[in-house]
Amino acid sequence: MELDIQCEEMSPSRWAELLTTMKSCKTIRLDDCNLSSSNCEDLSSIINTNPSLTELKLNNNELGDAGVEYLCKGLLTPSCSLQKLWLQNCNLTSASCETLRSVLSAQPSLTELHVGDNRLGTAGVKVLCQGMMNPGCKLQKLQLEYCELTADIVEALNAALQSKPTLKELSLSNNTLGDTAVKQLCQGLVEASCNLELLHLENCGITSDSCMEISAVLRNKSSLMDLSVGDNKIGDSGLALLCQGLMHPSCKIQKLWLWDCDLTSASCKDLSRLISTKETLTEISLIDNNLRDSGMEMLCQALKDPKSKLQELWVRECGLTAACCKAVSSALSTNKHLKVLHIGENKLGDAGVELLCEGLMHPNCNIQSLWLGNCDLTTGCCATLATVMATKQCLTELDLSYNPLEDEGIRKICEALKKPSCNVQQLILYDILWSSEVDDELRALEESKPEVKIIS
């Protein structure tokens, strides 16, 4: 049994009603429910008396250190079987870390701990690392984003990694680490016996200076499948170093996020080689990099290679125009694996999207999710888009937000949605102006086809 409630104010009567339900729940999710430390006292009792409870998610509640202390009393009882604990943005400080350390040391069932968006600081996370080093700790996933960590945390992290072969996922994004600390962390990862599968280092003050060490992790940890270094100024020279590790035969990367990394079209030669030869790679994000049409054309050539198995390509806000759309269309008509294309916030225009639609209509194309928000589209391309919607049953999600489609364009899209052959389940239309009459038509469409969700 699952309890999943979000963004609900809890009255005393409603809370009492839910407590009865929680006694038999396997999963409890109560994000954004205005919970406080007093609610945690009740939840501690639930943890203690409900041995089937394996997941507790309490993100975005003002629990505070006192609330976590209550929760940990339940977590430390022998009957507790909790495996996943989410406490993101719960107003915790380093004071909570001593209590959580006891849980990590004494509760082998706990495999996931998510404590991002809390002011734990370096001193607090050092205490958590002590708990991880206990032989009884079996932690597999640790999320420490936005925890006000500094370079001083690396020594404690490396010691924990060395003693914890069970750890599969480590997220340190949005902490002020810098190149020196990231180099030390990577050296520790190479030496550690852990089999890390996910490493997130977004917005950590990384430059090209530490990319050789990250590349060494890619070469030496064949278990690593998910790497995110977005929002770091690694540049074309850093990307070239990363690709040395990514192209190594032992690297089995599947998901690679490089958004806002100061890349230009010069990086696309290396990226194209990666896309065309690394058959494990299924998802790449290049959002907010200045790739331009020439860079995109190189990527499209790589997508046409039979060895490319890429399923998701994110190239939003990459300085693209209609000039690259013929190449994108050709790639869509060739690559059978690509399922998701995020190409919004580029000046494609109606002419560019008309070209894209030629590729989308090809029998080889299997696109399921297409994002074209803020692409300078008008009603002029809506008839062609409507044809794609009504014809390609694989297409289930379409984003046309921030485009001046007007009533005429929206009506053409709606006519396609009404057709039995259309399988679009989510249509995203943020910040588009239409008349009250069209608004009524959209609401009526949602009522007649409840499987369709129109987000505006």
UniProtKB/TrEMBL annotation:
Alphabetical keyword list: Acetylation, Cytoplasm, Leucine-rich repeat, Nucleus, Phosphoprotein, Repeat
Taking the record's annotation, the residue ranges forming a coiled coil are none
UniProt entry tagged with the keyword Cytoplasm: yes
What SMART domains does the record tag this protein with? Answer: LRR_CC, LRR_RI
Could you name the Gene Ontology cellular component terms for this entry?
cytoplasm; nucleus
Q: Does the keyword Acetylation apply?
A: yes
Subcellular location per UniProt equals: Cytoplasm; Nucleus
| InterPro entries from the UniProt entry | Leu-rich_rpt, Leu-rich_rpt_Cys-con_subtyp, LRR_dom_sf, LRR_RI_cap, NLRP_innate_immun_reg
> Which domain of life does the protein's organism represent?
Eukaryota
Which residue spans traverse the membrane? Answer: none
Q: What does this protein do?
A: Ribonuclease inhibitor which inhibits RNASE1, RNASE2 and angiogenin (ANG). May play a role in redox homeostasis. Required to inhibit the cytotoxic tRNA ribonuclease activity of ANG in the cytoplasm in absence of stress. Relocates to the nucleus in response to stress, relieving inhibition of ANG in the cytoplasm, and inhibiting the angiogenic activity of ANG in the nucleus.
Q: How does it assemble?
A: Forms high-affinity heterodimers with RNASE1, ANG and RNASE2.
What this protein is called in its record is Ribonuclease inhibitor
The top of its lineage is: Eukaryota, Metazoa, Chordata, Craniata, Vertebrata
